[in-house]
Amino acid sequence: MLSAYRPLFAVPGAPRFILGALISRVGGAMFGVAVIVMVSSRRDSYAIAGAISAVGVLVLAIAAPVLGRLIDKHGQRRIALPAILLTSVALFTTTWLSAVGAPLWTLFVAYAVSALLPEVGPMSRARWAHIMRDDPKGMHTAFAFEQVVEEFAFVVGPVLGVLAATTIAPEAGLVLAQILFAGGAILFLAARSTEPPVVPHEDRPPGLAINRPGMVIVPLVLFMVGVLFGANEVVAVAVSDEQGRKAFSSTILAAFALGSAISGIVVGTRDFTTSVIKRFVLLAAAMCVLQAPVLLTDNLWALVGIMFVAGSATAPMLITSLGLVQRLVPHALVTEGMAVAVTGVLIGISAGTAVGGWLVEGLGAHPAYVLPVGATAVAAVIAYLGRGRVRQGLQGDVRA
Questions:
Q1: Are 187 and 80 in contact (CB under 8 A)?
Q2: Distance of alpha carbon 14 from alpha carbon 138, whole angstroms
Q3: Can you say whether the dihedral through the CA atoms of 385, 343, 120, 253 is positive or negative?
Q4: Number of H helices and number of E strands within the chain?
Q5: Gap between the Cα atoms of 130 and 283, Å rounded
Q6: Rounded CA separation 123/192 (Å)
Q7: 143-169 b/e with 16+ CB inside 10 Å = b?
């Protein structure tokens, strides 16, 4: 099965940017849970922890399309390197402010600035879209591989973040996250031979990626997927903490990501006969059906099993969604389009962590699982009702 991915590593220069993207993604996967553990440990409040995390993700979500558009216009290295330097300084400032007990508002400000970072995921997918532009099957495999790498990062990242924050110091998880993110991103950008060329200004299509026909449906659905992710993070930490096993939250989150990674590997090796729109709708519904059983038990090991199964729908959903984006936008807008889609996820994570933190303190830890379950139900409804608009956007694409 894994042999289907071997041709990707044969692409000249690909192994270097794949490794850099992997390291950076592991660091990125640590940010959310690391800041929640840090703030909840120092301030004894999941509502505050969720709010700070939400502000950071919201800033990242707003910045991502802007940075994506600048990258499409000026190139990955030219835009991303200065942003990485700025965010590294801001992130290390955040951890220092937390350690010395600085006023709460300073944490909000510093962490918000640290979130003005370039997302490696859209940049990496843009590279594959350029490399595989004449090979639709190869592009499907590459996009599936990208999602598998991200899911692997979310298996390893939360574990490292929680372990560092609970065994060394509350701020250690966030420090390690930034080191891995920045170091991996710099290695990724150093692989210049695979960087997609900048489309000349006169050849760029007018308008924004979000305004392309049918495009808006994808980030709307992915917003709900983000709520699922963000709420699951906060509730997993709270449920584990309530039972005196806070570090166990990393096991629950890793099970979810592992289930997703395995399904992503399988999807990347398959040739589908069903339409991409039908898969988009069915996978949204599957996320809801598979997530719902978390409402039935608060046993930690039972949650591990349920979350492993629930995760099996998320990678195929993200692979399908980002594949749709690649078809809905012109090549010159592909990084921006990917960033818009990822922005939907990020804003959802922001909302999920914030609302999840409030629900934990208002309803209790386990009842707060109603939020991720409800979010997946709404995602299924949006995908079903929006399928016509997506079909219109895909008209003229023979792969639709």
A1: no
A2: 14
A3: negative
A4: 16, 0
A5: 27
A6: 12
A7: bbbbbbbbbbbbbbbbbbbbbbbbeeb
- DSSP classification of residue 209: G
Q: 56 is written with which tokens?
A: 């950071």
**How many residues belong to the chain?**
400
- Please determine, for residue 371, whether its predicted confidence score (pLDDT) is greater than 70: yes
pLDDT for residue 146 is more than 50: yes
Find out whether 242 and 147 touch, Cβ atoms under 8 Å: no
* Neighbour-count burial of 236, counting CB atoms closer than 10 A to its CB (0-12 exposed, 13-18 middle, 19+ buried): buried
Residue written as token pair 């990678």: 315
Check: CB of residue 49 under 8 Å from CB of residue 35.
yes
Count CB atoms within 10 A of the CB of residue 98: 24
Using an 8 Å Cβ cutoff, are 189 and 56 in contact?
A: no
**Model's pTM, two decimal places?**
0.74
Please determine, for residue 205, whether its predicted confidence score (pLDDT) is greater than 70: no
Tell me the residue type at 301: W
Contact call for residues 224 and 379 (beta carbons, < 8 A):
yes
Spatial separation of the C-alpha atoms in residues 167 and 160, rounded to whole Å: 10
Backbone angles phi, psi at 198, to 5 degrees: -75, 130
* Residue (of 239, 243, 267, 271) closest to 252 by Cα position: 239
Segment among 66-80, 86-100, 189-203, 232-246 with least mean pLDDT? 189-203
CB 116 within 8 A of CB 57: no
The DSSP secondary structure of 228-271, one letter per residue, reads HHHHHHHHHHHHHHHTT-GGGHHHHHHHHHHHHHHHHHHHHT--
Displacement of CA 216 from its chain's centroid (Å): 18
Of residues 248 and 228, more confidently modeled: 228
Instruction: Give residue 196's region: left, alpha or beta (phi > 0; psi -120 to 50).
Output: beta
Other CB atoms within 10 A of residue 200 CB: 8
How far the first Cα of the chain sits from its last, in Å, is: 26
Q: What angle do CA 4, 10, 267 make, to 5 degrees?
A: 25
What percent of the residues of the chain are helix, what percent strand, and what percent coil, each to the nearest 5?
Answer: 85, 0, 15
The pLDDT value recorded for residue 207 is 67
Task: Report the C-alpha gap between 293 and 297 in whole angstroms.
Answer: 8
